[in-house]
Design goal:
The chain has four domains: 236 residues, no CATH class; 72 residues, no CATH class; 178 residues, Alpha-Beta Horseshoe (pyruvate-formate lyase- activating enzyme); 144 residues, no CATH class. Helix content is 34%, strand content 13%. It is built from 27 helices and 25 strands.
Length: 685
Amino acid sequence: MSMSVSGLQNAKSLFSYRKYWAQRFGTAPFLPMTRAEMEDLGWDSCDIILVTGDAYIDHPSFGMAIIGRLLESHGFRVGIISQPDWRDPTDFRQLGKPNLFYGITSGNMDSMVNRYTSDRRLRHNDSYTPEGEGGKRPDRAVIVYAQRCREAFPESFIVLGGIEASLRRIAHYDYWSDKIRRSILLDAKADLLLYGNAERALVEVTHRIAKNGPDQNFSDINGLAFIQNSMPSSCTEASADDLEDPNEGRQRITSNSKNDLVVIRLPSYEQVAQDPEAYARASRVLHRESNPGNARPLIQKHGNKDVWLTIPPIPLTTSEMDGVYDLPFARAPHPSYGNNKIPAWEMIRHSVTIMRGCFGGCSFCSITEHEGRIIQSRSEKSILKEIETIRDKTEGFTGIISDIGGPTANMYRMRCKDEETEAVCRRPSCVYPDICKNLDTSHDPLIQLYRKAREIKGIKKIMVASGVRYDLAVKSPTYIRELVEHHVGGYLKIAPEHTESGPLSKMMKPGIGSYDRFKQLFDAAALAVKKDYFLIPYFIAAHPGTTNEDMMNLAIWLKRNKYRADQVQTFLPSPMALSTAMYHSGVNPLKPVRRGASEPVETIKGLRQRRLHKAFLRYHDPENWPVLREALKSMGRADLIGPGKHQLIPSWQPANTGGGGEGNRKNLKQTLKPISRKFLTKGVS
């Protein structure tokens, strides 16, 4: 049933459990990856074995390290199998059979996003692997790892977790195969799936299995997916269609529910596989049932089985967050990697996470789907202690904290002003179309944290590399001044994503006016402290709802503002995102999805058109000029072709570019003359 405000407040504390008997073995310097390490610890077996597609780095920026250390703190013996050879079950037997279960994740990234670009091209590097070597994890790693674990020890209990499992917990559109796939729980033949930030669910599940074995009912635990063959008699079933009916459907749910548990039935796998509009409806309902304060369980039939989702995880309190991040991490890669560099570790080794979650709800982003909309913040004391630990114990530390932030830089301690309102809210975003009047947008706690962190002895500079939510930042000019004066190193990355209202409305992003206002305040602050600092804006090409004209207007804006994108981001339809539902279905799940009355959305699917949209972002690259000339002529905008200051591209083509043609070298040199770093932008391809 729906979780009340008191239910949210009275969740069992993460660290209140009686510890498992194996606590007597103490804390491991690193969680063991070999039998020899287990023997050194005095273990004859592991209680839980975690299988991950990432290199094992014992640091709180890596999910397996957090999960492993948390379970260890509860007294369990936890082993790690990192980046195993998935071609046979040998590596999956190396630590023996787990006493309780295998826990499986692809790692910090979805394995398909990790391995392929938005154009479905294979990436040849992997930041989570020693020396960045590619090919160390399989496609759909969670499924493959689960199958090998089952082959290694057929009777083992298998629990899925991490972002790949979380975003594939129901039937989902898969961009790489261009089809609807079943819940990953079924394809992996696993026993349980934990979605979202799963510490609370994982601890409860593990203690229950340790006490009574795996053959039991876990349906009262938030944040789980499991398979069930029939509907309990105590449940009242409502359909996704009922939720979309503004009158009769909602009345039917209310009148039939009485004191029963109301369960929402999503369109089945078979329905969404055949009907894109049904897929969009399922996506809309899933996202509207994301608040643990009022969400209802969801079920989706796959053949003769139901996949059940319990209501979303209850967020961690500040004291629980502190407890998690204060666990005894070695804060280094496992010694077995020797001197090999792991790019992801090199990037975050001197950074500090201060919060989780994001209430932005951007429709293309996976953060909200995975971490939730309620911000979970650490205390000042815990954060400052971690900075001191980095200073004292991290090899190679030079006094610079590379980032202090989280999914966003400036949502620390922000939340709804009223707990009762928060518990019943179904808004997909707290900041779109406007910032909610009930949202506390004060940056004072964050400013105070920055100032205290800067005072720590031995700290020379604290950088902010996480993305700044600029529509929130403009509410606090003091925060912007603080950012510019102390926490920016030459430039600041920012993500307006587009300039045109059409695509921005589908992204659930603010209008470009918010960016302009932030830029004014940023430039004024930089001028006041006499610093040569600049903004680097990110933009997305080919997002649903974007027309060729939208991309043309964005290119004109870029040229007028003297921005030249180096690398650009093309929309990648990740599993479960609302933008992905738009891409697949051609309708808008941000609005009611009713047959014959759904709002259509223009989608950009063909490789040729996707490349055209990308070319508009790189209007300055001669390689793109031929395709842009052709497009501008077909759009009736040949007036933008020529040498004028306000024209987009020239009419001539330099030699050996864009398919050849004789060019004027002098003109080429003038057109491509070096520009200051002020006008350089970078993104993700």
